[in-house]
Write a structure and sequence with these properties.
Length: about 450
Amino acid sequence: MSSIIFIAVFTALLGGALWKLYLQDAVKNTVKQPENKIFIIAALAAGLIAHIICAVAYKGHSTDMGCFSGWSDRIYKDGFAAFYASDGFHDYPPGYVYIMWVLGAFKHIFKLQDGASLWLLLKTPAIIADLVMGWLVYKIALKKFNCDVASVFAAIVVLNPALIVDSASWGQIDSILALFCVLAVYFTAERKFIPAYFAFAAGVLIKPQAAFFAPVIIFGLIDELFIKEKFSFDRLLKQVGWAAAAVAAMFILFMPFGDTPINGIRLILDQYIKTLGEYPYMTINAFNIYAAAGNNWEKLNGMASWFGYGMMIMVVLYAAYVFFKSKNPSRHYIAAFIISFGIYIFGVKMHERYAFPGIFMLVFALITMPTLKNFMMYGLFSVISFFQFAWVLFIYNQDINKYYRTVTVINTSLITIAIFVMSVCFIQKEYVGYREEHEPLSKTIVSKTTVSKGRTS
């Protein structure tokens, strides 16, 4: 426990120093410098090294790693059609099953047994997703900032302890889900709805929790079709057609999992329904209002169900209010953050990692509006998420019957709720109360040569 607390405190202090000594001034620099790729190479290399060290030093969550290892064997040896038809446990949608087929092939070719090499192989897809997320952050930040600042934004992603613990230590695949969810929201913010639909579909193929972010795409569509421009039935029909194409692409990927294409679709739809019906508890190690009340792993009852699902609807409605009320350019990412962490805190049947994509929505909000408060939100939710992931992985799993309702769970839940409430107060002031004259810092970068000539390009 002391090591977890030390890393959390050290991360918070390091983040504060980074903002105070570097970022708060660096993000104000509007003079474009030539790109030096050594910065991003160094950031990604540091992230890769940290991930590999943690991946080979610790096996990971025994249940999850056992499932991934067994499933990769099964899908490679028996084929897609036999995977869901078997009697074994399988609660993942088909998106990651395709990836596990590749893992099973490598495991078979290199005859890997339990050990560091197998651990690293099973964790590789999530590690790659982490690095891709860092590269994506860099490329998007580079549109506004110099390469050194953009590389720092990438570094605070790939070296984020919550990210490393989840992907490299635990062995989970939340980073893959987060990557597609972030892409869906990013494309929506950029008014590029066609790739947004397909990124969202890919996220749903990985985990059904991607559906949390469907409202953000809907908000963006309403804004695009009914508010920004005059309504056009042809434009609406085009959007419906492309959304249907994304769904059709999902159904095509369902087909190999049955003895006939139709049975494949039916099996996968049944699998989604079955997955959503699993874990009928108020909270499953999610540090939220139910855990704060001492109800971690408490069976779900009718009253709690109605309250939990009702609160989830209220969270989405509040996100809609913030989105449509605000003129803040990062409103898409903040709406996504509200939904992700709001549902995590107030919804039922939440696992400890369900808000994971919300952390990275804050990164993109920070890039869009590089303010101290946005940076603090990213830092605080990163630190508290790291603590929760690490506690479940390293403490709770030692003796689940001993640790599942300890004071640590209650206190950390209260802290998480307090941070979220504080963030909502900030959102009310800085997003709902946002006025367009408060332009984001570094909105436009100009080059030294154009400045010297007294004009911008």
